[in-house]
Write a structure and sequence with these properties.
- The protein is of the alpha/beta class.
- It is built from 34 helices and 33 strands.
- Helix 33 (808-816) links the parallel strand 32 and strand 33 (821-824).
- Helix 5 (138-155) packs antiparallel against helix 6, helix 27 (693-706) runs parallel beside helix 29 (725-731) and helix 33 packs across helix 34.
């Protein structure tokens, strides 16, 4: 059944919607999809790729828009099939050497397991007899017939799986039986099963099969699971999918045939070396479905095939400067390549891979960091199980079973055995561990909701493993000792039963499942690999990253995160040290205190600032420390500072310098704290919401009158402040822009809404905003920040204060505008360093 290899352009040349692998430009991923692009690249590099062609994403978009195949596409498909016949020396839909096809989806952005595939297309009675004549095996023919009928019925007609009865019929076929009779028996049984459940029929006309399969792949772009996946991963809905039509090779034809998936490095740990799985006498769907547990590729393949696979993988990884996920089939000991794409990887693996690429020096620093994301760095910082508790759980016999760790992460939660219930319980605020015999794309909503996933079957390339790695969710697969009773809602291991709702703990690296909850320890310090990656990123960007602290104990953690300075807020520090009520009491003094001389009562605030900032500053060494003054109109501190009561009694406190004595008190206290801590420079007090040069001049006058080592600055939060930034900067020592506040002010929405999913998610779905203000800067904001950038002079950078999780896109935009000083929350420092380094290297 082997396809002879040919090269050179196809006889027919490029057409409107279709391109052969030889004609296509591999760089045109938007049109070809990831799968088509990879096949084109491998084919043009001379690798053994079964010939085929790609139907572009433009055809899919037209089909979804018009609800019909675009004009001329059916004719193109027929012409392309004729070309495939000429190239292969085989004929579609008849003997003596029949051509069978695979029809697969291939979106521009990888969506593993989300859309549809149909294999063995083109089978009918004449083809079945010809295949049996070529192979001498009617049982193989029976398997092809059953597989094709089930795939077509499920994918094109939306029917249910025909069940075990068909498998038993196939297994009972004698290899030497008459193939025509075998076809009749298997096809009739499949049709009867389909009619009983759906009252439909699979066509036995190969031409009709092709058109039906293409339409089904187009429709699969808008299935519920595909839309859910795209929404979770922020993939646009208007891309469409390409369709890859390719000549079949058969891993299920003989014992020296099989199918596999291999990674050029371990996608769970990042360890160098070939990593993957292989199932002898199988088709590719058997490997990824998780219904059979495969063998390690390095042990299962014949030595010469393994050597060829290893050499090719190394060449492809070097060429693509990336760790790759490669699907292959072996037919009669000959290796064929069916797909290559960037490998989904765990956060831990992504960090190690980036560090190893940097150390090996085979790719550029930009390429080494390209596929490591700030989100993966965030996930590496997650807490893990307390080691002592894990040891006790083992000693107490609470370890239920051990499977294969597919995605690291150590999580506890209630056991749930159904994806719908997993989603419901997660939405109710519970941590959920989803257990399934095997997962499928229909389980995606439950997998997204779960903190951990465990399956009874499947390997590290199964659906559960691949999706879990994409989600960054702790996952264990192949835990073969567990039995799940969906009706009773129980999980049984040996003689032990765990009921849905009981707490369990899952180790996605070690593969262990425990009964009961295990506490998580403080996140470990950055690994050596992460440190190496961040050092390279920091060298590339040459940016300062300041980290928010509140208590003296926070300073060491900020240093470990690579902080070049610190930021804090007076109200935050007083709240954390238990003084916020005293502060509020002082500010809620009688209105008559506004009389001349009554501002002496702010001396108590100066004393509080001195007392609490002395130990904080004492541990900062020479790090720059930026202190935000009390903000009585801050959206995020409305309740804590009793804003309504305070500003009703003292409306002047709602203005930045409405009560100069309050600012002076904070400045006096901070000066004394700096002196007590031995700081003679590097500390500043910044006031929020200044928008006019006159305000900045007034702040400068207060600072000059008090004197001392503490300098003063301004936090710019609105469009007017941004426009006046150069003039404001002339009067103060330090400038900061509160990026979230500025973005919110431009959109006219509360700043707190930029830290939540709803209602902005719904607003964006309705097309009411041109840009997501949580992830990217609005063009008007970029214009305003261009004005701010002009305030950077004489070696004085303007700082960008960023809150919440900083999106990589926004960080790159700020870097591109020329800003090199940033301040973030403690857990955002490392992700931001990476994002800035990638932005610098991309430039």
């Amino acid at each position: 059944m082997t396809e002879p290899q040919t090269s050179g352009p196809s006889a027919g040349g490029s057409r409107g919607f279709t391109l052969t692998f030889d004609e296509a430009d591999p760089a045109d991923v938007d049109r070809l999809g990831g799968k088509g692009s990879g096949l084109a690249r491998m084919s043009q590099q001379g690798l053994r790729v079964p010939p085929g062609y790609v139907i572009g994403t433009d055809a899919c978009r037209s089909y979804l828009r018009e609800k019909a195949l675009p004009a001329g596409l059916a004719e193109e498909v027929t012409a392309r099939l004729a070309e495939l016949e000429r190239r292969s020396g085989k004929t579609f839909g008849r003997g003596p050497q029949p051509l069978l096809l695979s029809v697969r989806s291939g979106a521009p952005i990888s969506m593993p397991g989300m859309m549809d595939t149909i294999l063995d297309l083109g089978i009918n009675r004449e083809v079945a007899r010809a295949v049996a004549a070529a192979t001498g095996d009617s049982r193989f023919v029976a398997d092809l017939v059953a597989r094709f009928h089930a795939m077509y019925a499920e994918t094109v007609l939306g029917a249910l799986d025909p069940g075990d009865g068909i498998d038993e019929l196939v297994a009972a076929v004698d290899p030497g039986e008459d193939a025509g009779e075998v076809y009749d028996r298997i096809w009739a049984a499949c049709e009867q099963s389909l009619a009983e459940s759906d009252d439909e029929s699979v066509p036995d006309d190969p031409q009709a099969q092709v058109i039906g399969a293409i339409e089904a792949v187009f429709r699969s772009w808008n299935t519920r699971r595909a839309r859910t996946y795209r929404e979770f991963h922020a993939i646009p809905h208007d891309l469409g999918t390409a369709v890859v039509v390719q000549s079949m090779v058969f891993g299920n034809v003989s014992d020296d045939s099989g199918s596999g998936v291999v990674f050029t490095r371990n996608p769970a740990t990042g360890e160098p070396g070939l990593f993957g799985e292989y199932l002898a006498h199988s088709q590719g769907e058997d490997v990824v479905a998780g219904t059979r547990t495969p063998d390690p590729v390095t042990e299962a393949l014949a030595p010469d095939v393994l050597d060829e696979l290893r050499r090719t993988c190394a060449d492809l990884e070097r060429d693509r400067a990336d760790v790759l996920d490669i699907e292959f089939t072996v037919e009669h000991s000959t290796l064929y390549f069916l797909q290559v794409r960037s490998a989904k990887r765990t956060p831990e693996a992504a960090v190690r891979i980036a560090a190893d690429f940097l150390a090996e020096g085979e790719v550029s620093p930009a390429a080494a960091l390209r596929n490591l994301t700030p989100e993966q760095v965030r996930q590496v910082q997650r807490p893990g199980f307390d080691d002592d508790e894990v040891a006790r759980a083992r000693d107490e016999g609470r370890r239920l079973t051990t499977g294969t760790g597919a995605c690291p992460g150590q999580v506890s939660g209630v056991l749930v055995l159904d994806p719908d219930r997993a989603k419901e319980r997660a939405e109710a605020g519970e941590d959920v561990v989803l257990a399934r015999a095997v997962t499928s794309p229909a389980d995606l909503h439950g997998m997204i909701a779960a903190r951990g996933i465990v399956t009874a079957t499947g390997g590290s390339t199964s659906h559960a493993a691949v999706v879990a790695r994409a989600l960054g969710t702790a996952c264990v697969v192949g835990a073969g000792a567990i039995t799940i009773d969906a009706e009773a809602r129980t999980l049984t291991v040996g003689g032990r039963t765990v009921v849905e709702g009981d707490e369990v703990s899952l180790d996605g690296a070690g593969g262990e499942l425990f009964a009961g909850r295990i506490s998580t320890a403080t996140p470990a310090a950055a690994t050596g690999a992460l440190g190496a990656v961040l050092a390279a990123a920091s060298r590339a960007s040459e940016c300062e990253v300041l980290v928010k602290v509140t208590l003296p104990a926070d300073v060491d953690g900020a240093r470990e995160a690579g902080a070049s300075g610190l930021v804090t807020g007076i109200d935050d520090v007083l709240a954390a040290t238990g003084h916020i009520e005293g502060l509020v009491a002082q500010l809620l003094g009688p209105a008559s205190d506004a009389a001349a001389g009554a501002d002496d009562r702010f001396d108590r605030i100066a004393e509080l600032v001195e007392a609490e900032f002395t130990p904080l500053l004492a541990g900062t060494g020479e790090l720059d420390v930026g202190v935000r003054a009390i903000d009585l109109v801050a959206d995020e501190a409305r309740e804590m500072l009793q804003q309504t009561a305070i500003t009703t009694r003292h409306p002047e406190l709602g203005l930045p310098l409405g009560r100069p004595a309050l600012v002076a008190a904070q400045l006096r206290g901070l000066n004394r704290a700096a002196a007590n801590a031995g700081r003679t420079s590097g500390v500043h007090l910044a006031v929020r919401h200044l928008s006019d040069p006159a305000e900045a001049a007034a702040l400068r006058a207060i600072a000059d009158e008090i004197g001392g080592p503490v300098s003063v600055g301004a936090y710019l939060t609105g469009p007017r402040a941004a426009g006046n930034a150069p003039a404001i900067g002339d009067a103060v020592d330090v400038l900061w822009v509160e990026v979230r506040a500025l973005q919110a002010a431009v959109f006219g929405i509360p700043a707190r809404q930029l830290l939540t999913a709803e209602p902005l998610d719904d607003y964006l779905r309705r097309g009411l905003l041109p840009v997501d203000p949580r992830t990217a800067l609005d063009p008007m904001v970029r214009t305003l920040l261009g004005d701010v950038a002009r305030a950077q002079h004489d070696g004085r950078p303007v700082g960008m204060r960023l809150s919440g999780e900083v999106p990589e896109e926004a960080a790159a935009q700020l870097y591109g505008l020329g800003f090199r000083r940033f301040a973030v929350e403690a857990d955002g420092a490392r992700p931001l360093v990476l994002a800035l380094g990638k932005a610098a290297l991309a430039g």
